[in-house]
Amino acid sequence: MKKNNQLFFKKTSVRIGAGALVLILLAFYFMGDDIRDEGTEAITAARTVSLYTISEANGTAVRTADGNAFIVRSESDGRVNSVAKVGDTVAAGATIAQLENSSQRAALIQAEGAYDAAVAAAGGNTTSQATAKQDAVRTWNTATVSVAQVMHTSIDNYFSLSRTTGSITGFRGLEAFGEATTFNKRRVAIEETLKTWERDASTVSEANITNMLRSLDTDLATIGTFVDDLAALVPQQRSTDTYTDAQRSADTARLGDARTTITGLQRSVDAAQTSITSSTGANAAASNAQVKQALGVLESARAVFNKTIIKTPVAGTITAVSISVGDIINVGNDVVFVAGDTETETEHTVTVPLTAVKFTPTKAFILSVEEEKLIAHEVETGLVTSNSIVISGAEGITDIVLDVRGLKEGDTVVTQ
């Protein structure tokens, strides 16, 4: 009996020991990320990351001869829209002047749209061709109906219609400078196109959508040119009792809205065509190359735009302002004088996306990529906005990871 008890306790001890070992191993498995030594590499699949090129977005500043202040200089040229005042206290990274930048803003928005379209097209590589064609049929139907609506509700303000036959009988509302007959013929031809679309609506399908989109693309280009030519007449109109400035503004807005709608539909058709092509998988590499190219254009447009917003890389008090609202300034012109800490470093304060900085309870880091491994660089942080942050200490680093969430030093990554 005694031997049996001893054997029982030995077996029980073995079972308890084995169970404890399993629990410990499970704890290591589930909490490994938290308790693993930072020098130990995790065996995980490589993650794809995007890189952000650090640019000097906070203006250029140099010390004055006496070393007691900094001169902030412009990195762009243009008309001054706003500027800070003498006596203002500014933080590092604060905006102290802004140049007129409507064209730069438009270029940035266009680049953002092109990048989003490239990303969407690249993502379409994973879309089945059947799904892409189904979406394309819907795009065709939406585009044809929308264009017909634009023509009949906006463009036909400039054409006379027969109440009995519904046919177009003449040009009206704008002086056509001898081209009224030509405009009328072009509008009649477009009406025939609209009627063809209406007939084709019952037969468009996945089987013929590729050819239908190609034809629609050509038709939209023709209609877009027609609207452009019509809009070009508006600035040439002479102001009279019957054609007022208010009428001119209304015509400009009406035709501008019509062109915007048609342009948007052209982009939708282009995207549908790209989606069908990409869904075969044959153009995956080309799509990825287009994403990189679009990203390069976007970063360039963003850099140009950012330079119209003049920021100070140093904190302090503005003691003098060298420009006024309305002035035309050039690259390198003095903007303001800032009295700040004489120990302040001026050449390495930059603004980066907030997602590019990884925080711990006591430190902040950015991550770069070297031989497909993440390298952490400690930085000092400054002004924080809703989507960006000012950092210093990134000397010699050109490209950093755009989104560091879920990443850590030593991770294996692939850049795109």
UniProtKB/TrEMBL annotation:
GO cellular component: cell envelope
Source domain of life: Bacteria
Keyword entries, A-Z: Coiled coil, Membrane, Transmembrane, Transmembrane helix
Organism: Candidatus Kaiserbacteria bacterium RIFCSPHIGHO2_02_FULL_49_34
Compartments, record wording: Cell envelope
Name of the protein described by the UniProt record: Membrane fusion protein biotin-lipoyl like domain-containing protein
Cross-referenced PANTHER family: BLL5650 PROTEIN, EFFLUX SYSTEM COMPONENT YKNX-RELATED
Chain segments annotated as transmembrane: 12-31
